Each structure stands twice: as structure tokens, then as C-alpha cells.
Amino acid sequence: MSRTEAGFDDTAVVSARGLKKRFDSFEAVRGIDFEVARGEAFGLLGPNGAGKSSTMRMIACTSPRTGGTLRVLGMDPQTHGPAIRARIGTVPQTDNLDMELTVRQNLQTYGRYFGLSRAHVRDKAVELMEFARLSDRADDEVQPLSGGMKRRLAIARGLVNDPEVLLLDEPTTGLDPQARHLLWERLFRLKQSGVTLILTTHYMDEAEQLCDRLVVMDGGLIVAEGSPAGLIEQYSTREVLELRFHPGTQTRYVSAVEDLAERVEVLPDRLLLYTKNADATAARVSERDVRPLSSLVRRSTLEDVFLRLTGRTLVD
């Protein structure tokens, strides 16, 4: 790894130092540092208002930073925006497809925005429709397509210029499980081909599936960074024992079980016992004559980490 005089890793696809974004008196991004390596899948997690989308827009050269430094593909977005945009693809949270055009026309028209020849975009559209499993809908208008098909088309359109980096903002929001898993498989194929993926998501299982590394943001700051497995190891335990009770009765059992776990979390209808061995902990709970309505042994997940770092309070 080599670094420039300014401290940037000159092999990184994205490097940020003290990056800030302010809207009038509100500072959405409050001075963050991170790097994205070429060929990795990098995630930005956080509750609403954490600063994820603002960060993505700065990387995409669609929103200027108000502080700090940022390099994308070795260039400054504020002076080399067009050159960067020619080498990246974007998939926004809300599909901005041309609904009255066909699938094929959406791809071909978008390709022309990059100055690609008609012959090239014709061939590229065929390639991308096959990749997105939309070949049989090539000449159908977009409007009546399912949500999953539209999302696959949006991703295909983001690839029309053969980008080195693909930015995905909430790529599977609102999709059913089958459509989500198909999109995961397509994105995994892209990563295997060498495309760098940078994504935001509210689905913790999606982050665990797709991301090599991620940051958790809260209040415009990065509060944790690492691989999904590394973050679970650092901020949680190997397993969790969930004990469910009649709502409002769970607190009376805290003192009986709190020494059996590294951490006990009290929810409205249950207790979560974070422990290395949940089966053994369950046996000891039973020995103390604690009788929950039901119990569940599970492994710790990225969601446990996320909620511990950002809290359970709803953020609008």
C-alpha cells in the first residue's frame, strides 16, 4: 500500500479524510475517514439521517462536499466530476427509469448519454438484458414490470458504461425474498468480475451476504468499521438466548439471569442474553426456575451489532 503526501492510499478506489457535508446549519456528515479498496464490496450502514446517502452523493459527484478531502479513482470530485462519472455507475434508491420506454430502449438511450456509439449500445443492451435475466422482456414497456424486474433493469442500466465502481443506494428495498436473492447473485457475479461495489442498505442480512467490509454511521459519524464477522466478534457474543415473557413481566427476571450472560438486553416482551454458549445458558436459566413462554437459541448477527451501536429508538 502506498500513500500520497496528503495521506491518501493511492491504490484505493475511494479515499476520504475529514469528509463533511453541511446543509445550512445542519451537518449531515461530520468529518469521516474511510477507504474503499479496488474490487471489494463496501457497505455504509446506519439509521435514517445517519449521513449515508449524503456520503454516496458526494462519491457520485452529484453533491459537493463542504469540508475535508475526497478522492474517487484518484481524482477530486469537485474538479474532475465528469471524468469520474464516466467511470462509475449509479443505482439510486428510487428507480428513475423511463417508464414509457421498453427495457431495451432504456439501456440504449442511457448508453448514448455516455457518448457510446449506437452499435455499441445495441450490443451492450443485449449483454445486460441477459445478465439481468430480462431478455424475454426486451421489447416490453417498463411500467408494467414487477418491482424486481425494474430493480434489475436499474442495475443493468448502471452498468451500461462498464463502470469500475457501482454505487447502489438501498438496492433491494421493497423486494420479495426471491427477487432479493436473485439480485444478490447478480451483484456477486459483478464483484467476481472486478467491479467495486459501494452500497447502502437497511437489511443486515444483505450486508452480511454482500459486504467484505463496512462502516456503521450514526449522527453523521462513523461509529464502527470492519468486516461483518469482525464487527460481530468485537461488539457482540457468539450466541444469543432469547427468552419471551408476557409483556411487562420480563423485568422481574433480570436479576435472576443477569450473571449468566455477558450482557442482558430488556425488550418489551423478552430478555436477550448475550453469551458464548446459549444452550448451556438456557440450561442454567431452567435450573433457576425461570419459565419463559418460549426460548430461542441463535447466533449473533450484524443486526445485534447495529442496534447496540445505534440504539433501538426509531429515527424518522
TrEMBL record:
Residues 14-244 form the ABC transporter domain. InterPro entries: AAA+_ATPase, ABC_transporter-like_ATP-bd, ABC_transporter-like_CS, ABC_transporter_ATP-binding, P-loop_NTPase. The keyword Transport applies. SMART domains: AAA (SM00382). Belongs to the ABC transporter superfamily. It is a peripheral membrane protein. The keyword Nucleotide-binding applies. GO terms for molecular function: ATP binding. Gene3D superfamilies: P-loop containing nucleotide triphosphate hydrolases. It is found in: Cell membrane. Pfam families: ABC_tran. PROSITE patterns: ABC_TRANSPORTER_1 (PS00211), ABC_TRANSPORTER_2 (PS50893). It comes from Streptomyces glomeratus. This is ATP-binding cassette domain-containing protein. It comes from the Bacteria. Keywords: Antibiotic resistance, ATP-binding, Nucleotide-binding, Transport.
